[in-house]
Specification:
- By secondary structure, the chain is mainly α.
- Helix content is 55%, strand content 4%.
- It contains eight helices and two strands, in the order αββααααααα.
- The chain has helices at 3-17, 61-69, 77-80, 87-92, 94-97, 101-137, 143-170, 177-187, and strands at residues 21-24, 32-35.
- Strands 1-2 form a two-stranded antiparallel sheet.
- A hairpin with a 7-residue loop joins β1 (21-24) and β2 (32-35).
- The radius of gyration is 33 Å and the shape is flat.
- The chain starts with a helix and ends in a 20-residue tail after the last helix.
């Protein structure tokens, strides 16, 4: 077998062990091996995967637990980040803020009232969302029922949010201006870029 034939045979063997390659002509060499790489993207996981096993599809277990115990859950951010202290955090910072006995008692009363109201509203919101979920699960939903049930949920959430915000507003009658300034400093809000606090010249940060 001549040298030329050996060259062709060897080239054929290379192709046999390298599947998925193509031949292309080049000005400098008769053939060029170009690998053909095929990438198959993996399907992205569904963003709500696993939600179908929830007791209430629209509420995570963590949020349900928070609603049941009257946790803040971000409902009071409009107040907290604009210079209106929250009763829970005031109680936590009582020593640093220098609260007297009367201030502690009044703050505790505000907190207890807020917690009582938010727990009731939270339970009502859970029940409203569970009912909406059940209507869809049983295929008993209609446009009219959607409009009615979402209005119920919205009303309970508004009630819940208002209870949190009112508690923050009420705290303004309990603390002295210097205590409110100390509260923002202790909470890390001093030097932010938000609007001016109603009691002083420093700015809380953006939410």
């Amino acid at each position: 077998m001549g040298a030329s034939s050996k060259h062709i045979t060897g080239f054929a063997l290379v192709l046999a062990v390298l599947p998925g390659v193509a031949l292309a002509q080049n000005r400098d060499s008769p053939f060029r091996i170009e690998p053909q790489i095929i990438i198959t993207p993996s399907p992205a996981p569904a963003p709500y995967m696993g939600f179908e096993t929830r007791d209430v599809k629209t509420l995570s277990p963590e949020r349900i637990e928070g609603l049941k115990r009257g946790a803040g859950l971000g409902y009071a951010l409009a107040a907290e980040l604009n210079g209106y202290p929250g009763p829970l955090h005031v109680l936590e910072l009582a020593e640093q803020l220098g609260l007297d006995a009367d201030q502690k008692s009044r703050t505790q009363a505000i907190f207890d009232k807020m917690r009582r109201e938010t727990r009731i509203a939270g339970e009502a919101l859970i029940a409203a969302e569970a009912h909406l979920d059940r209507l869809f699960a049983l295929k008993q939903i209609t446009v009219e029922r959607v409009e009615a049930q979402t209005a119920v949920s919205a009303a309970q959430e508004a009630r819940l949010r208002a209870a949190h915000l009112v508690a923050h507003i009420t705290m303004m009658d309990v603390l002295r201006p210097e205590q409110m300034e100390s509260y923002e400093r202790l909470r890390g809000y001093v030097g932010g870029a938000g609007g001016a606090s109603p009691h002083g010249g420093h700015n809380p940060p953006k939410p």
